[in-house]
Amino acid sequence: MFCDLNQYRAQIGLYYSSHKNVISKKFKKIHSKFHSSSTSFLYIFVYINILLCLVYAGKIVLEIIKTYVILEISNVCYLNIFIAYLLMICGDIEINPGPRKDQNLSICHWNLNSIAAHNFAKLSSLQAFNSIHKFDLICISETFLDSSFAIDETALDFNGYKLVRSDHPDDVKRGGVCIYYKDTLPIRFLHITNLSECLICEILYDQRKCFIVSLYRSPSQTPAEFDDFIAKLEIIIDNIITPSSPNLIFIVGDFNAKLSNWNHDDPDTDEGIEISTITSSYGLTQIINEPTHILPNSSSCIDLLFTNQPNMVIKSGIYSSLHPNCHHQIIYANINFKLYFPPPYERQVWHYSRGDIEGIKQSIENLDWNRLFRNLNVNQQVETFNNYLMNIFQNYIPNEIITINDRDPPWITDKIRKKILCKNQLYKKYQQNGKTLLDLEQVQNACLSLNNLISDSKKSYYKRLSNKLSNPKTNPKTYWTILKSLFCDKKVPVIPHLVHNNENITDFKCKANLFNSHFSKQCSLLDNYSTLPLTSFFPLSHPALSSFAIDGDSILNLIRSLDIHKSHGYDNISIRMLKLCDYSVVKPLMLIFNNSLNQGVFPKPWKKANVTPIHKKGDKTDVINYRPISVLPICGKIFERIIFNSLYNHFEKNDILNANQSGFRIGDSCINQLISITHNIYQSFDASPTLEVRGVFLDISKAFDKVWHEGLIFKLKANGVEGKMLNLIESFLNERYQRVVLNGQHSEWEEIKAGVPQGSILGPLLFLIYINDLSENLESDVKLFADDTSIFSIVHDNDLSTRVLDNDLMKIQEWAYQWKMSFNPDATKQAQEVIFSRKNIKPYHPTLHFNQSEVNRTGSQKHLGVILDEKLNFNQHLKVAIEKTTKGISMLHKLRYHIPRKSLITLYKSFIRSHLDFADVIYDQPNNKTFSDKIESIQYNAALAITGAIRGTSKDKLYKELGLEYLSSRRWLKRLTLFHKIFQNKSPTYLYNIIPKPQVFISLRNQNNIPQMFCRTDFYQNSFFPSCIKEWNKLSPEIRAIKSLNSFRNILLKTIKPIPNSVFDACDPHGLKLLTRLRVGLSHLREHKFKHGFNDTIDPFCPCNMEIESVSHFFLRCDFFTDLRTDLMNDLFDVDQNIQYYNENLLTEILLFGKDVFSHQTNSQILDLSISYILKSERFDGPLL
């Protein structure tokens, strides 16, 4: 059996690179045998060399070598090592670089002539190529990207790399450059001049700088444009080259210029001479000296790499093109510029499915916890509990330490890597053999084979995912993990280098310490001289709270309700561990909880947090642009939940919490608060004459981190918290520690001396208690949502409104000083005022003041996730929401060919429609058709993407196909569902009180109706309460009388949601697309095109016999497909023998949709036969003109 010799050489390279230590030892043994053996061994040695020469020439196969050699060498392993060594000697092998061990900078450049072409096939090839070479910077020319490709376009993702682009200045799909750079690289991009299609970056490490310029010069430049290019290139070089500093400079790109000095076969061009003159004058050397653009009959060196320090280049050269349609080769350079690469880190993995769960429970129950805890304080008890629990799990659950490395895309296989190495070896052969056409053809064939292999591998990968998504046995966690991996940014955020005091911080432990120092400093008090009030407490009008009961059932219920997907704390006791322990762990926890309560001490081990920095916005190298996410030990959070329930019930039961506070309140939400705010504004707009509303939006700086512990204890006492409970909370707040964990490295522990614990259960409630008195004595309408504070004033008199607001702002400022908090201290986050008005001529309003500064007046403000504009038309909010859906719809187009339709619908609902769902009851305008159509177009576009249907298809048919309700109907349902909740008084009282109460005298016919609000304008009539009341009164009394919210919603949902047409697991995506087009009535068929007014279709008749070319004609009567139809009917008869008795209409319906009375399997077979008939007919091939 003959083998692929080039592939074999590539395999030898992979084998050698991964086993070179073993090979070295084995060869020493062979070498010693060579010197001591008989003549026969020497004969074999010479004979193998001869055979290998023949192998190199392609004359003989590996099997013949093995046949001869194995007679003398018993160990086949020795043979492989021996052959590897000899092949390495003759240089006829492409070594797999493997994981990079060096820390030197590596860059490459490729003009790939359109990233998006062939469904991003070139980018896929580049990813596979880079899985071997791991370049730090990948420069690309002629990207052919424009603004239609979002910067975060998922198709442009490159695992472990970030993307920066410079598209063609005319925003057309030609030219353009981009750079992919490792997300850990200490890099920043510079703007030196307005040279288009050019990117300039600076890499800084250990006080050394390396500048890299990536550019593209079009060959069609006019002389004037070329002069401008040269002038701007000089400006760039002038700015980055400094005689006093030995900065490294590399300028790379497709210059479309030739010079014989660069490649002796190239003629000198004017552009080449000019570029050479300029670069030489700055001491730059061009280091690529072989053709980079290779055609069958010509080649030239136009992809160039200039540097001011060629002696710093360790290696440079060319790799062959990765795509048969791209004639530019890849140029590269490895540079003696040291970088920091994050080391892999280790993680402990527990194999729970192989563990002895009953053994764990029995071991825990057998322990005498009373004896173990005797004479120990609660801190020691927790430590003892943790140690015993972890020891038991070590004994009963198999576990291992794994190393976490960067991962390549899952479709990149060893077979692909071998193919790349084989192609590289063929390219070397092409260079060494005089660049013959025959060798070039072999390279191109290998390139084509590589791309086919990559395409097949991606299809196979998506097919495996599709099978998992289609399999009803796939568990929900796996299902959602797959969907998120396909649709979301699945990469773990990487913390790049940090800049501190003008120094780059790259070591992860140093980063962790820097973050922890920053975060811990945030948890500090405002440095003022305020003290606790001297006023004595008034007698309580409600019972005090001094203790609470702890029972085993509560602990067990809390354990069973935990989400196993949540992270665990520093103690490594995971939620899954506790859930596996179940009832067996209740006793020790109850002992610790009761001891903690009785001693008034919250255990110290449960007050330590692991912190992860999460980037917010802005420069990623600056720690101030990150926020901390804390993870506390799960046992401590269970105890917190028990304390929380008791404390929250005390404040709710005694009506202590501020009614205007909507944050962290059970039954309240940001939507409820927004409804209240907008209703008051709409009502003011509707007044006669129309009134304005002034709204001021404030932000407490680092609110949760600035809580004054003494002040909080003071307020707890004032509200009746005392005794053991008070001592326990005081202990909970004090002596807390945190550390930052990054990439397996962690900082030192830092004490947190202020604030409520981030990531805790109790923290938000304690914060609400702390700011509960903020709105006391304020005249304005105050709205609180945790730390978001807003005050509103309806303007009846401009001066009076100004005085009231200014006075309230002063009181808020005084409250903040008293309680050591600060509102809007950052100059970039000053208090914002919006004057809500629909007046054409707006009156003058005096400026407000806060924190000794003027309050900034703006036309809109984002509040609780919704952009409130001054006219309350929500155009800005809707624009942002629609923009967020664009990327998702693009992804649906791409995924349609890879995953089942059911999963596509789930993706749409979860990741696209959700952007439109948020606050839709706020921004909805029920009777505004233009507004509704604008939103509906998003769902229509998504439906087209999912099905592959043609634009112009009926929405009714398309939504029926997918089982989607109209978005306007969906908003109607959500409004009435929320109104039902308010009407049943299951939402905050401030909303229930808005609903008008029935009049005493009312006709019997309308006795169950809610009185309609008086609305002077349609604008007010379309707002939440008036429109809901109108729609509510239209419902039947029976529906309105339903008490259950779910039952009420489900009854209404049935009236608007269509039952979807099933596709019965049809697996051919292209065929399913064509079948869907026939189902929804818009396809290549002449009847469809004629009905929809296509210019190329003047009548609906089929050319076969002048009968209308309908769906039934195509399937059952068209003369063009007689033989196909015969096969179809025979196959259908095998599926259902009654098929011959069906009339044409019913048979057509069955061929399109299946039949309800048939089994799922039978319907699946029928649709597969229909799709096969459609595809074989070739009637639907080609574009739809």
Give the gist of this structure.
The protein is an alpha+beta fold. The chain contains 41 helices and 32 strands.
**Number of beta-strand segments:** 32
How many helices in DSSP terms?
A: 41
N-to-C terminal Cα separation, in Å?
51 Å
Oligomer: single chain
**Strands in their spatial order, largest beta sheet:** 3-4-2-1-14-13
**Pairing-aware structural class of the strands and helices?**
alpha+beta
Based on CA inertia axes, which overall geometry fits?
A: globular
Helix content: 40-55%
| Uncertain spans | 1-6, 15-76, 87-93
How would you sum up the major sheet? 6 strands, mixed
- What is the average of the pLDDT values? 87
From the alpha carbons, calculate the radius of gyration and give it in angstroms: 36 Å
Strand percent estimate:
5-15%
List the helices and strands and how they pair.
Blueprint: H1 5-36, H2 39-57, H3 62-69, H4 76-90, E1 104-111, H5 117-133, E2 137-141, E3 161-166, E4 177-182, E5 187-190, E6 198-205, E7 208-216, H6 223-240, E8 248-254, H7 270-281, E9 285-286, E10 293-295, E11 298-300, E12 303-307, E13 313-319, E14 330-338, E15 345-350, H8 357-366, H9 369-373, H10 378-396, E16 399-404, H11 414-432, H12 437-470, H13 476-487, E17 498-500, E18 503-505, H14 508-522, H15 552-560, H16 575-581, H17 586-599, E19 608-615, E20 626-631, H18 634-653, H19 670-686, E21 692-699, H20 709-718, H21 723-733, E22 736-742, E23 745-746, E24 750-752, H22 762-770, E25 781-785, E26 788-795, H23 798-818, E27 832-836, E28 849-850, E29 853-854, E30 856-857, E31 860-863, E32 866-869, H24 875-895, H25 901-911, H26 913-917, H27 920-923, H28 929-947, H29 955-962, H30 967-983, H31 989-992, H32 1018-1021, H33 1024-1034, H34 1037-1040, H35 1045-1056, H36 1069-1080, H37 1086-1091, H38 1111-1116, H39 1122-1135, H40 1144-1153, H41 1160-1177
Parallel strand pairs: 1-2, 7-8, 19-22, 27-30
Antiparallel strand pairs: 1-14, 2-4, 3-4, 5-6, 6-7, 8-12, 9-12, 10-11, 13-14, 15-16, 17-18, 19-20, 21-26, 21-27, 22-23, 22-24, 25-26, 28-29, 31-32
Helix pairs in contact: 1-4, 1-11, 5-12, 8-10, 10-17, 11-12, 15-17, 15-18, 17-21, 20-21, 20-22, 24-25, 24-28, 25-28, 28-29, 30-33, 30-35, 36-41, 39-41, 40-41
